[in-house]
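Following up on my earlier message about D-ribose. Here are the inputs again, as you asked, copied directly from the submission form:
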Amino acid sequence: MIAIASDHAGFALKEKLKKHLEENGIEYKDYGTYSEESCDYPVYAKKACAAIIEGECEKAILICGTGIGVSMAANKIKGIRAAVCSETYSAKYTRLHNNANVLCIGARVLGDGLASQIADVFLSTPFEGGKHQRRIDMFE
Ligand code: RB5
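Thanks, got it. Here's what our run produced:
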């Protein structure tokens, strides 16, 4: 199960990504926001990350205007490894090497086609483990 959440700036892209996930048979839970009315991105980042920490979801996709605000909020939470990705190379390697469990996307940065491709790579790439786990342990 994938958690998905956004603020108002990311709402439209969240709806498009939800459709993309549905088309690919990927189950998700939407933690809001549910409209384009102005809201505070840390609230929604926290809700989706809590779903990971509580074991309800294995990964999350967070969307705000730049992807940066939600990533900062998410990375304050112990056990969350959030990465802002604007291309597929970073999405691949943050899974392989960082075991990132949260993908952060900037809705004002990317079009929905590229955002969907980035999500696909993020969700389908496994963690490599080995020496990379040692490095994660050093900051966890
Ligand atoms: C909202 O205007 C914007 O500040 C927010 O979506 C995000 O980009 C913050 O980092």
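One observation from looking it over: Strands lie at 2-6, 28-30, 59-64, 82-84, 102-106. Hope that helps, and feel free to reply on this thread.
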